[in-house]
Every structure is written in C-alpha cells, then in structure tokens.
Amino acid sequence: MADLRVGLLGVGMMGRHHARVLREVEGIELVAIADPGGDPHGVAGDLDVLPDIESLISAGIDMAVVAVPTRFHEDAALKLAAAGVHTLVEKPIAHTVEAGQRMVDAFESQGLVGAVGHIERFNPALQQMRRRIEAGELGALYQVATRRQGPFPARIADVGVAKDLASHDVDLTAWVVQSPYERVFAQTAFKSGREHEDMITITGRTASGVIVNNIVNWLSPMKERLTVVTGEKGALVADTSTGDLTFYANGTIPLEWASVSSFRGVSEGDVTRYAFAKREPLRVEHEAFRDAVLGESTDLVTMRQGLRALVVVEAALESARTGDALRID
C-alpha cells in the first residue's frame, strides 16, 4: 500500500519537531509544508514552503498536522475537514470552547480522524504509570498532584499558561486515573506584564473522588515536570522530562519508634525505579495518528477529548476570575 501523504502547517518551534519526526515514521510521507512566516529553522529540505492552508490542501494530502498559534486552529481545521483530510492539531484544541466544539462537529460529521496533540499521554513514564494503576499496583487512588513550571517561552503570545501548559496536566490527570474532572477551584497570577496569566493553581476532584492539584507557571527559573499519584499502597512519581517512573511503597515493617509512629499514617517502604523502553513521545503520537487513519484502535487523543480538557481549563480560569469553585458539566 502506498504511504499516506502528510502536510504540515506551521514550522515554528513545535512544527520543526513535527517535520523531523514525520520524515522518520514508516508508512507516511511528508509531501507539503505551509507557513506564511517562511522556514525559520530550515526544516523544509527540498520541499517548497507554501503560503497558506489552501495551498497545503491543494498538494493532495491524506493527513495534516496543524502547528500554528492556537487562534488559527479553528480556521485551518474546518478547511481541512471540508477537504476530507484527517487532522491532528497541537494543543489546546482551540482558543475557545465554542471554536473547539465546531471542530469536533466538523470532523465527526465527516467521519474523519480529528486529534489533538496532548503529547504527554505518549510519555513513557505516564504510559507505564497508567498501566500499573490499571493493574491495581496502587490500590484505591487518593490524589494526583502535578507540577509543571519553568521560564517564560517567548514564542507564546496568544494564550496564557493555563491553555498552553495546564491543558497538559488536566488531560493527563483525567487519563491516568481514568475519570474526568468534576469540580475545580483555581487561582491565577499576572506577574510578567502580559495580557494573559503566567501562573495558575488548580485544585479539584474527579468524578471518581480523586483529589487533584495542578501547579503550573512560567515564573520559575527551574524546569519541572512531575506527576505524583498517591494510593492506598504507595505513590507513583513520573518525571516526564526524563521519562523516569519511581514507586514509593508503603512500608510493611511496624514502627517501634513511638514519637514517629504517632504522627505517621503510613511507614516508609521500598523505593523502586522502573526500567523500561523510552521512545520519543512525538514519534509514538504520530504512529498512533497514522494507525488511527488506517482504521486501527489507538490511544490518540480525539478532538472530543481535547475539548473536554479545554472545558476544564476554561472553568478553572472562570473560577480564578470569580473566586468560586465550579462544577464541570
């Protein structure tokens, strides 16, 4: 069977990585690149850099990857859906929930694969974490805490840290525990003089009763990407910047030191850092996109799932504005 023809819209900071990986994945061929801003990172190779989405569609593509600023996602996606092109857009799905819903409707009505690039689902540490939780290695789940912080990326101009980064944590949290957010309360801060927030803390609860805390900012000089899931048998800690997963088991040895045991709910147990294959998440994501287009069942994040993450983030921003805890419909 001939390779699937792929077009890429946007070759900026994220698009350049898509260009590299798309050329490495078997069964697909990168045949067209479009970016009105040209090719700042020199990734086009022998391909012409087309000026717009219309010219990308005219190249005769089966699949498309959209890696342009968030406010342009809807326009590009709707044109691709009308042309019958399976599409993966970078996260967040859109700049507003209404725009995201229009995208979901367009792709579902056409029977096309519509996906969102929530790449953390393909991080090896989180995939291992979810498998082990599914296998019952943590027992009942109590809490998820994530920390995603680092310096401000100058490339982001059209959204704040909530939609750009917290959307990762909202999606991965619900995916790891397999339960959607039910309630959120959030606080934001504006410290860098920009229109949008550069710090957000989201506290919430999933429908299954798991307590959630997401700490996200662009104000830290250190880069941190941690997900901690605590359950009745211990805690799993995923460092998604390195792909490492560590298990901290609850101890089974009784404590005889009275002054310690009197205030400890559990005792310290064994600590295990797991060894497993670590493949590049972006490559695994593109393989899942390819397989979904071929009709296979994959872990690809659908546009409907991506919309759910945006709904939660929007609710968090509204909570921060009003000071109220909000229930997610």
From TrEMBL:
Keyword annotations from UniProtKB, A to Z: NAD
Kindly provide the name given to this protein in its UniProt entry: Gfo/Idh/MocA family oxidoreductase
Give start and end of each Gfo/Idh/MocA-like oxidoreductase N-terminal domain: 4-118
SUPFAM superfamilies with a match to the protein in the record: Glyceraldehyde-3-phosphate dehydrogenase-like, C-terminal domain, NAD(P)-binding Rossmann-fold domains
> One Pfam family this chain carries?
GFO_IDH_MocA_C3
What sequence ranges are listed for the domain GFO/IDH/MocA-like oxidoreductase? 127-236
Organism of this sequence = Microbacterium panaciterrae
Recite the lineage of the species: Bacteria, Bacillati, Actinomycetota, Actinomycetes, Micrococcales
